[in-house]
Amino acid sequence: MHLPLAISMGEPAGIGPDIALMAWRDRADHRLPPFYVIGDAALMEARAARLGIGVPIVPCLPEETRDTFAFGLPVLDIGSGLDDRPGEPTPETGGVVIEAIRTGVEHIRAGRAGAIVTAPISKAVLAAAGFTHPGHTEFLGELARAFRVGPVRPVMMIWSETLAVVPVTIHIPLASVPERLTTSLIVETGAIVAHDLVTKFGIARPRIAVCGLNPHAGEDGLIGREDIEVVAPAVAELNRIGIAATGPHPADTLFHPAARATYDAVLGMYHDQVLAPVKTIAFDEGVNVTLGLPFIRTSPDHGTAYSLAGTGTARPSSMIEAIALAGRLAARKATS
């Protein structure tokens, strides 16, 4: 019997509570595995009432999730009776948001949860509360040290059934990308992607398409030298160590259906180069998966959406996909 999934509540003023509630409501339609929410039970109950969707909130421990899941949404209550104020973020909620993530990871380490699914957070709210990490990914990398598996380098992948992408550089200014981009960074990222596609996704020999940095992959050096001097050597090294990598490819011709049939994942040089295509092609189905961790973490591929919080108009599809994918990956890990 597989362990339940832990869901961190995310930013209380955003749609995290909404989509967690809706995912439980729609659990049978999508055959979702049992999960529990880590957060504020009173707020979850108030949000359910506000949405009018009739989801019973059942405070419980992770071990009670399976028995509880059929008739109510299990919630591990770590809050202090937060007021339900959708669309009105405040730094006072930052502690609960951070603790929910920390608790979920600790539950995995202790064998109480099979994976963690993180609802959207507000980086600005957490920064105001003293949070020093750029985002979820970096914080999870720090928490992974408790697993004592050696150096951890988390890598962000946006996954969907039709397209999976990984940016080599993530949350940095575009002007800083050329100086931060190195052959070794591309190789390290590509190796982590290939490893996890094998071990977590069960793809025997992953095919990785590598984007060039410049338009037309530099046009043989006419539009910048980075693709010749930095990216191409990385592709060669990836192949030398046994990874099926191609490129550097012009990014503007890499995402149409015929091209997508030739690879399992795209390695992009910067954030918007690959996130813009995947969010265009699979906006409602995209899932953020953190590779390179000793545990499974997924998340909906969208933000807090304050304007939708508490209105009943948020779409839970990305959260549902994140839960479903986490369940499949956790089940595969448990049997491998």
From TrEMBL:
GO terms for molecular function: 4-hydroxythreonine-4-phosphate dehydrogenase activity; cobalt ion binding; magnesium ion binding; NAD binding; zinc ion binding. It is found in: Cytoplasm. Its cofactor is Zn(2+); Mg(2+); Co(2+). Its EC number is 1.1.1.262. Binds 1 divalent metal cation per subunit. Can use ions such as Zn(2+), Mg(2+) or Co(2+). SUPFAM superfamilies: Isocitrate/Isopropylmalate dehydrogenase-like. Pathway: Cofactor biosynthesis; pyridoxine 5'-phosphate biosynthesis; pyridoxine 5'-phosphate from D-erythrose 4-phosphate: step 4/5. Pfam families: PdxA. Its main location: cytoplasm. One of its GO terms (cellular component) is cytoplasm. Substrate binds at residues 136-137, 279, 288, 297. It catalyses: 4-(phosphooxy)-L-threonine + NAD(+) = 3-amino-2-oxopropyl phosphate + CO2 + NADH. Keywords: Cobalt, Cytoplasm, Magnesium, Metal-binding, NAD, NADP, Oxidoreductase, Pyridoxine biosynthesis, Zinc. A divalent metal cation binds at residues 171, 216, 271. It comes from the Bacteria. One of its GO terms (biological process) is pyridoxine biosynthetic process. Belongs to the PdxA family. The active site is located at the dimer interface. Catalyzes the NAD(P)-dependent oxidation of 4-(phosphooxy)-L-threonine (HTP) into 2-amino-3-oxo-4-(phosphooxy)butyric acid which spontaneously decarboxylates to form 3-amino-2-oxopropyl phosphate (AHAP). Homodimer. This is 4-hydroxythreonine-4-phosphate dehydrogenase. It comes from Phreatobacter oligotrophus. The lineage of its organism: Bacteria, Pseudomonadati, Pseudomonadota, Alphaproteobacteria, Hyphomicrobiales.
